[in-house]
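Table S2 (continued). Query chain:
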Amino acid sequence: MKNCIGCNKSLTSDQFSKRSASKDGLQDKCKVCNKADNAKFRKEKPEYINEWRVGKTDVLIAINRKYQSKWGSGVYKITNLLTNQIYIGSSKALLRRRNEHMEQFSSKNNTNKLLLQDILIYGRDNFIFEIIKQCPVKEARELEAKLIKKLQPHYNIKWK
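Corresponding output:
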């Protein structure tokens, strides 16, 4: 157990992000407090990210390439474990896309209202992200279209 200096709660270590510079290897604030602090900072200083990006084009491109190559491109499926309803998608960066979906689920900002509605009803833990096939982008788009046509997934509303 560790005390968060933000909310003064005693929490388990998995509720803190890592920080190699500290004795216990964890940050002083829990993940929830850090997220709130970051959101507050971004709201107070919206120009900061643009200032930070100036002169870092090469670094950002390198980070993006590394991030995209982590899982590569391909086709994925999101499954509701309680109803077995699915969503089929493709991406040139599967890891990034998975993280985007998870962020959208958390922020209630998902563009797929049907999927978001069920996530709110059944809970995020009842949905899993699975890679169907890692393949080049062109092949992924073709396979995605073929699977959507064949499986008629419940959550792929724009294809119906």
